[in-house]
Amino acid sequence: MLTATHVPGGPNWLGLTTPDAAESAAFYGAAFGWTYEPVGPEERGFGLFRLAGRVVASCGPSAEPEAAGEWQIYFRTVDAEATAKAVEQAGGTVRFPAHDVLMAGRAAGFTDPTGARFAVWQPREVDSLDAINTAGALCWTELYSTDAAVSKAFYGAVFPWDTSWEIEVGTHVLAVIRSSVSPVSPVSPAGAGGEAQHGAIMQLLPENLASGSRSEWHPYFATRDCDGVATAAAERGAETLIPPVDVPGVGRAAMFRDPFGAAFGVIQGEAGGQG
To answer: Around 221, how many Cα atoms within 13 Å sit in the side-chain half-sphere?
Structure first.
């Protein structure tokens, strides 16, 4: 569960790159019940995905005409330009420089040293997503890395992340991402300081690397019915990467690529789902 969206380095926005906003809206509408709201001229393909009226993601066309679809996770920053400098100093590259998104905030996009793409959001009028940790909304993030040690060192230099806590999930080892929470943070219980978690970094296995898997960030959405989402996704043309499986201590999970190639996962909590 996400517990660090309001602290620096916590995921506070999610964007889908897609060549066809209408088709993507139909797919995610069937999977999660989202509706699509165009922003600006509809032919530009920019818009918001909403769940019961609340924003759960944005979408827009790729700057590269032939590029596949992609989910882009944005992490909170107080200074997008300073984050860009930290990225370059740590060995990453800038994909698109910091720029204003109307009066909503500032965004910048990067590629880490292993090839994973991510972005940052510096809020102004728009702070973060309206809904998280509820059925159909973002509830977790994971980086599947070709070199987890390099990834942990890089992100630890860019964000105030602690990845020292590692857990075993089946044959995989996940380094849980924890961020410091100040005493005044809205995610800190009873006004106390501490740590909050919002994702994990996982080393790809040798067989994954041999098959050509690359470093990639994946969003996970909460669901009350993992198998139902799997059926709806397959019927709408998704590729099933990991079929629904029970994960001890987590619940039931699955992973897919949507019809345009964007990877995402779903988690049904052991207590009967989220939200």
So the answer is: 24
State the pTM of this model.
0.91
- Contact by Cβ (8 Å): 83, 71: no
CB 86 within 8 A of CB 70: no
- In this predicted model, what pLDDT tens digit does every residue of 230-265 receive, in sequence order? 999 999 999 999 999 998 888 999 999 999 999 999
DSSP letter string, 82-146:
HHHHHHHHTT-EEEEEEEEETTTEEEEEEE-TTS-EEEEEEESS--S-S--SSTTSEEEEEEEES
Rounded to a whole number of angstroms, the distance between the first and last alpha carbons of the chain is 11
Tokens of 97: 């420089």
Distance (Å, whole) CA 101 – CA 94: 17
The three-state secondary structure class of 4 is coil
Cβ neighbours, 10 Å, residue 259: 18
Provide the residue count of the chain. Answer: 275
